[in-house]
Task: structure prediction
Amino acid sequence: MPTRLSAVTGATLLALFFLTSISRAETISFADAVTSLATDCGKDIKKHCSGLNLGSGKIQSCLEKNAAKVSPTCTATLANVTASIKQRLAAQSSFASVCEHDAAQFCSGVKGEGNVLSCLVKAKRVNERQCGQVITDAGWR
Amino acid sequence: MKNIRLTATLLAGLTVMTGHSLAQDLSDKQLVRTLGRVEGAAPAIDIAILVQEASASAGKGVASLPHWQNLSKLSQLIVEIDFENDSVAIEPKSYRTVGMIADALHHPNLQRYKFLVVGHSSSTGDAQHNLALSQKRANAITEALSTTFAIAPDRLFAVGVGQEWPLDPANPKAADNRRVQLINLGLVR
Result:
């Protein structure tokens, strides 16, 4: 019985750890995301992708095309960076719909998305809800 | 003259605050606040006229850019974004700066505004070439912002002015003159 309990505790802790690392990845700013790209892939970019711009996925496809020559750290970082940019964009674009109800309840009469956001950030009860989590994931605290 | 001094003051202020890399150490909140100050009397900017003026006056300096002077009245930031030599490729060490701009432009306080990216060069090299390269580099920045970071393309405009509007008119060849201005053009219609 104690063994089973500790196994369950262990699994719970592991799951918690896993969840925490996921939600931490969600709250990375665009600046931090591309900084890790520059740090871990800078050398490979200079070597294999010289002359290419960051935009239009050119660096990404160049690094993927040269995967055999690119450092494993860079390959892993590239995948993480791409994912975290996507997660942040998703959180930001879900703000309006997820927070619609809370905005009506706590910030009615407030005009402008920026003002609604600062009102929601100040409203204590919002922060315990899904809307509060979206604001955090969007990086708008 | 006053306009240039104003820009220089802003740059000096940021330099004191952040050391070498201007936007690098500014917080996202500071960026949003600086770019979000919109005066009621902000002049309307016609980008086609800016392009026309710049291409007609390569090598003639800021005096032949009357419409460009209006830009000084708008809220803006100067950032340093480094490129590979004679190329549109943004150096990896400057990715962070582009990412910071993306963070700021996605903030709800700035979401309704459109922005102009202005590329400047130093006076090293041919004036026509500098003009063309600064335009391509400004385009490269807006391309990165609108694709990698999904800023709506109708919020972004890019122009290059080459070496015509140096930050440091006494030393037009100085590296400080190579810079990017990010200017709030007002509400997206």
About this structure: Residues 1-21 of chain B have pLDDT under 50 and may be disordered. The longest helix of chain B spans residues 127-147.
